[in-house]
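W.,

You were right to be curious about this one. When I first looked at the sequence I had no strong expectations either way, so I just let the prediction run and decided to look at it fresh. Below is the sequence, 282 residues in total, followed by the output.
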Amino acid sequence: MTVMTDTYTLTNGVEIPQVAFGTWQISSGDTTYQAVKNALAAGYRHIDTALAYGNEHSVGEAIRDAGIPREEIFVTTKLPAETKSYQGTLADFDQSLNNLGLDYVDLYIIHAPWPWGQLGRNYDEANLEVWQAMEAIYRSGRAKAIGVSNFAVRDLKNILKQAEVKPMVNQIQYYLGYTEPKITAFSTANGMLVEAYSPLATGGLLHNPAIQQVADHYQVSVPQLALRFVLQNGILPLPKAINPDHIEANTKLDFEISAADMVTLNAMSVVDASVFHNPTQG
């Protein structure tokens, strides 16, 4: 077994590869197609996209052309943050399946608790309606698991007070120096696997001398150290890359960070003030 073939098990028994390939900010068309194709060739078996990314067609095409049995590829997509109605949720899910050219997805996620243009605004009642639609999609079998993204503790409590099926995943911004202990602990305590988007701080970790020193000790790159750090905290990272060499390098995670070095790394504060942080602590 390797990092790329190991899995976490969600609360409903679904196995999810513990490293995902993210496609946020990758242009649709050949760029996305080649990136996903190269990722699958490098050993990734978990591909993450979203309707809002505008690249589902290209992701689906690369998956279908990969020559890998569908059941061996875990596919995640997301409901747009702006969609806050029952019927809208069903319609957008159908659109995503059509874009991907797939009969089902393995994980369907609410992209955010509020529309992106209204960050932080209260949409509690609308999110309850959306979650009912998510449950209907799950029961239909067309999504093998359902979850949320960017949900704070209060947002999760709102869903949990009514949910017949609890969210199985909470995807949040999480990386070395920004590990959001409050939402991470609450999600985990309620049976949700935490997924880390931007696990390299959108490149913000790459030139940090303290992190570089630890990476040098293990004879690995800073991205490799950062991804391994996320994994050893029990979190699922979603690295993104376009360059084939970077895609390949991000799969080389079969090393172990010592307990002492994990303490040091976990004690680091935010490492790059220029990186946008999407807080979900409250």
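Here's what jumped out at me. Strands lie at 7-9, 15-17, 21-22, 46-48, 74-79, 107-110, 146-149, 169-173, 193-197, 236-238. And, maybe more interesting for your project: The mean pLDDT is 94.

Coffee later to discuss?

I.
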